[in-house]
Structure formats: structure tokens, C-alpha cells
Amino acid sequence: MSDFAVVTQTQEPNLDTAMKVVYQWNYEPEVDELRRLYIKAAEAQWVAERDVDWERPIDHQKFATTPLGAALPIEQCSYWKGLNAETQWELTRRTAGFRLSNFLHGEQGALMVAAQLVNAVPHTDAKFYAATQTMDEARHVEVFAKYIKKLDEVRPIAPALKTILDATLQTEDWMKKLVGMQIVVEGLALYSFREMRNLTDEPLLKDLLTYVARDESRHHAYGVQYIARCVPCLNDAQRTELEDFALEAARSLIDRRNQQTFLTAVLAIWAEAGIDPAALLTSVQNEREELTRELGRGRRLGPVQGFVIPTLRRCGLLSERVATHYHEFLRDNLSGNLVGETVEEFMQRIPELPQDTAAWVLGELQ
């Protein structure tokens, strides 16, 4: 008897989405940079089952170098260092499992948005590229699911990420889909993949993140190149609406309430491993200044200020009006010494986006 069923307990059905389909009867290249990106993507396709050696076990000792996604390197605090090796491994693998699970869920969201973009974008070159991205995202879902199965278990999606994915899938505006996915979600992913890939010494994880990061750098370039072409064609009201959509997506990543929900999930995971989460947090808080010194300036900025906002600026979606809002919520949720006490100081502290994102994500550029 087959186990196949149309409806399963793991499905979350009935998210209402709206999308207008655009036929394009001109099949000649219209956006040369997107046609080149499409060709590059087609040439760079890889097969997870063939190109990644899944027979390798996860190296526990080398996996300890994998960043856990916290604002501070919690694994460097005295409480963590005082734990026995087995407990440290349980904490590391479970926390990393939670982070990787959200990478996995984000990739599923990207898979569905990319499929929508094939229908919704109005230029043939953009449709072609979105088709290659759909294939990429399916492969990313495959590899993260396989790796998590070796490491831990698939953990639930973080509510803030689910909110962004839902809003991006539900909007009727294809430009908002591009901004929500290619710039905000892919920007967050690219920043996180870069950090994890360049710091981990675990060979299997490093290999799959290298493949994934190369793909993601193209996805990010697609959004930047296409939106940068489109923004000058918008009137003031349309540009304001697009800026505000990006703002709300970014805000949801930083908002203290969402961060508290994230922390609650992590605390529950730590308690599963048999430690006192409050004692760990107290140790981190008491040693905050020393732990902060371990971070480079780029990591201190975080993905929104360090990558998403620079991307929006390059695309022409960082007017003085919306920059004021970014400054307000970043200052409220982070700190003035990182964000800047004034909007002018904030704008001066936004780093330049790397010209070669693929080289940057692989650690070849700072």
C-alpha cells in the first residue's frame, strides 16, 4: 500500500495569493544584463546528489566553529566554555539546527516567489532568469533538508520570516515581490550564508554553503539589476510605496517583539539540551563588552544595516524620507553608537555594497 496522500499533516494550505500573469510576445533580448545573468545561471547548474559528498559524517569538532546566528558569539562566554564537551555539542547542533531550519524555510518561500515571478515579470529576460532561480531554490531546499536530517531535526519557522514570506507571496505587485524576496530576504540570506560559510570548518556544511552562496549572489544581482532599471520609471507615489514595502519587511527582522519571539524559541532549545538558559544569558550579558570586541565592524552592523540598506541605496530606494524611518527603528532596536545619532550620521555609516557580490560572499573581498 502506498503512503501517498493528497493532504498531509505537514502542509499549511490556503494562503490566499494574488498575481497577474503577463504574456510577453517579444522574444528578443530586452535587458542585456539579465540575459547575461540567465546564461551564467544556466551554465552554473549543479546536482546536489552528484556534486556533494553526502557520505561524509558531520565532523563534531570542526562544526564547533559554525556561528550560531546570535548578535554576540555566545559560544565564547565563560558559562558555555564551562560546559562539558557533550553538552556543548548538543547546544551547538540544536541551535544550528534552528538556524538552518529557517534557511530551509526561507528557501521554500524563495522557490514559490521565484515561480510567481516567471508569470508576473513583464520582460522575457526576467522570466528566463526567474525560471533558473526556481530551479536553484528547489535544489537549496533539497540540500538544507538533507543536511538538517544528518544534524538535528527541522524546527518551526520563525514568525518574523513567515510574515515577510507571506507578504511577498500575497502582494499583487511584481516589483514588491522582487524587493521583498531578491533584496530583503535574499540579502538577509546572503549575509548569513557568507558569515556561516566563511567561519565554519565543517567540510560538508562548507561545501554546500559554497554552492548555495554562489547561486544566491546571482539571485541578489537579479533583483539589484532589474529594480535599478525599473525605479527611474516610477512616479513619486509608486516609488514611495515600494520603499515602504521594503521598510516594513526590514523592520520585521529587527523589531524587538520579533526578536523576543526568536529568543524564546532558542531558550526552549537550550532547555532541551539540559542547561540553565538564564545562567547562559547572564554570562553573555556580564561579558558583553569583551564578546563585542571579538566582532569585526561588519558583523556588528548586522544584515539590515550592513547589506539590505546598502542594496536599497544602490537600487534607488533609499530616499531621505525613508532613511529617517530606518534610522529611527534601528536606533530604537540597536544602539546609537552603531546606527548614528542623526540621520546624516546614519547615512555616512552605511557601507558600500561590494561590486563583486560572488567574490564577497566567498570571503575573497572584505
Task: Write a brief caption for the model.
This protein is mostly helical and 366 residues long. It has helices at 32-43, 48-51, 60-63, 78-81, 85-120, 124-151, 159-170, 174-199, 203-230, 236-254, 256-272, 277-286, 288-293, 297-315, 320-333, 336-339, 343-349, 357-361.
Can you describe what's shown?
This protein is an all-alpha fold and 366 residues long. It has a single domain, classed as Ribonucleotide Reductase, subunit A (Orthogonal Bundle). The protein contains 18 helices and no strands. The longest helix has 36 residues, at 85-120. The model has no long low-confidence stretch (mean pLDDT 90).
CATH class designation: Mainly Alpha
| Pattern of helices and strands | HHHHHHHHHHHHHHHHHH
Number of discrete helical segments? 18
CATH architecture: Orthogonal Bundle
Spell out the key features of this protein.
366 residues, mainly alpha, Ribonucleotide Reductase, subunit A, 70% helix, 0% strand, globular
Secondary-structure topology with pairs:
Blueprint: H1 32-43, H2 48-51, H3 60-63, H4 78-81, H5 85-120, H6 124-151, H7 159-170, H8 174-199, H9 203-230, H10 236-254, H11 256-272, H12 277-286, H13 288-293, H14 297-315, H15 320-333, H16 336-339, H17 343-349, H18 357-361
Helix pairs in contact: 1-6, 1-9, 5-6, 5-7, 5-8, 6-9, 7-8, 8-9, 8-10, 8-14, 9-14, 10-15
